[in-house]
């Protein structure tokens, strides 16, 4: 049974304080992540990055936000004004709400008071399902924003977002099912408590890999940023947005990055527990406010992975993106879920040791990665019984398009010079030393 007795007992001012702190932390974390991304990518590309506003350029994100808020707010004439205004709000609010069930640490005493409260706004028996449901609502803001703009490019970006949500949320949900099987709960605080001995990211390594790939596709980040591919769709679903409404889309993207990173930290990396066995060496590292440091350190590690991928990998084609989701991630997640269910049932009956589970999971992870990285799209061999393409003679009687000389397909003959009615004829001057009539040389003579 899930023990959630420590939640719902806080005074109203403690609940309000927690809500305000979550909002403020996420806003400042977004400003820091934007600065950090620009700095890391600049270092990868041998540039300096922001270094003017504030120490080390730390205030550059704030300056950009103020500049963006002061820009002119334009609403296209063909847009559905009500939906156009509500779409950014519908995207950014769920991004903040999902953090309400994320545990930042254990129970602590609030300074200068006698109140003891967990470092978590609330929890529920289906907390992870709540996070996925609320995160799905944010996608509707992107779809409606693209539809309401009255632009073809924005509409295509919104449609891509809906297809992307369906494709990668399925694999993400299947990756989380194995965590529920091992933890015996869907509550975030209980899942963290179940990782006291060993992290689920080690025991369930294939699920961890599938979730990490799916979370990059879920938040529209490179190389999976197809809904806002500037080379194809100008700016994607937010092409027609400006000023504060565009800033809300931008804010929602970075808060969603922090959300999926916090979920990965909670479900696979022990949550707020100290890494590398530090909690075993000194139990105080898992008490008080130390766990907040470990939690945000793990979250920033995933943020760095997002930045690293953006700075190194090119954008995928849309068909490759869909094939990865439906033909690789979902079948692998299904097979791994069935395997974990069988192993879990055998373990509960006392027939299998945990070390064999870890070894089996590592072997399956290696096989999965080998199939993922080594499986190339090789061209099939030509069928020797296949008839040669029909040869077309050109004007000079020479056959073109043979497999050995001209490729796999025949080449049509080129028309002779002047054979086409109305074709331009070359200019011929009787005297090369004399310029054409009407030129400056003729006028001078």
From TrEMBL:
InterPro entries attached to this UniProt entry: NADH_UbQ_OxRdtase_su1/FPO (IPR001694), NADH_UbQ_OxRdtase_su1_CS (IPR018086)
Transmembrane segments: 12-36, 82-104, 124-145, 166-186, 198-217, 246-269, 289-309, 321-343, 355-376
Entry EC number(s): 7.1.1.-
Membrane topology: Multi-pass membrane protein
Location of this chain's protein in the cell: Cell membrane; Membrane
Family: Belongs to the complex I subunit 1 family.
Name by which UniProt lists this protein: NADH-quinone oxidoreductase subunit H
Gene: nuoH
């Amino acid at each position: 049974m899930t023990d959630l007795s420590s939640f719902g007992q806080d005074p109203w001012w403690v609940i309000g304080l927690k809500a305000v702190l979550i909002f403020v932390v996420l806003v400042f974390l977004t400003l820091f992540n934007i600065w950090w991304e620009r700095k890391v990518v600049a270092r990868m590309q041998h540039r300096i990055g922001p270094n003017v506003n504030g120490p080390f350029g730390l205030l550059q994100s704030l300056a950009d936000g103020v500049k963006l808020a002061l820009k002119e707010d334009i609403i296209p004439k063909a847009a559905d004004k009500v939906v156009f205004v509500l779409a950014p709000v519908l995207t950014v609010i769920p991004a903040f709400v999902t953090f309400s069930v994320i545990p930042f640490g254990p129970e602590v005493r609030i300074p200068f008071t006698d109140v003891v409260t967990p470092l978590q706004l609330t929890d529920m028996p289906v907390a992870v399902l709540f996070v996925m449901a609320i995160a799905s609502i944010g996608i509707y803001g992107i779809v409606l924003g693209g539809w309401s703009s009255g632009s073809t490019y924005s509409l295509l970006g919104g449609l891509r977002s809906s297809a992307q949500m369906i494709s990668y949320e399925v694999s993400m949900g299947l990756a989380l099912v194995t965590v529920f099987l091992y933890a015996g709960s869907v509550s975030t605080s209980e899942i963290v408590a179940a990782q006291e001995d060993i992290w689920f990211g080690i025991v369930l390594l294939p699920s961890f890999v599938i979730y990490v790939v799916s979370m990059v596709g879920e938040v529209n980040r490179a190389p999976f940023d197809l809904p806002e591919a500037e080379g194809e769709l100008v700016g994607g679903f937010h092409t027609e947005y400006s000023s504060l409404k565009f800033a809300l889309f931008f804010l929602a993207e970075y808060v969603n990055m922090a959300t999926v990173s916090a979920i990965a930290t909670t479900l696979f990396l022990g949550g707020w527990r100290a890494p590398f066995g530090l909690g075993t060496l000194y139990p105080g590292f898992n008490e008080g406010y130390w766990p907040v440091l470990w939690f945000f350190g793990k979250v920033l590690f995933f943020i760095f992975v997002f930045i690293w991928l953006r700075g190194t990998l090119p954008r995928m084609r849309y068909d490759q993106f869909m094939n990865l989701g439906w033909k690789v991630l979902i079948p692998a997640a299904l097979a791994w879920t069935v395997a974990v269910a069988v192993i879990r049932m055998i373990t509960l009956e006392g027939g299998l040791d945990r070390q064999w589970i870890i070894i089996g999971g590592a072997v399956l992870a290696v096989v999965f990665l080998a199939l993922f990285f080594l499986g190339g799209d090789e061209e099939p061999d030509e069928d020797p019984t296949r008839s040669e393409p029909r040869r077309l003679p050109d004007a000079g009687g020479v056959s073109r398009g043979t497999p050995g000389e001209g490729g796999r397909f025949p080449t049509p003959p080129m028309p002779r010079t002047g054979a086409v009615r109305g074709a331009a004829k070359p200019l011929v001057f009787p005297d090369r030393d004399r310029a054409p009539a009407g030129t400056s040389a003729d006028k001078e003579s």
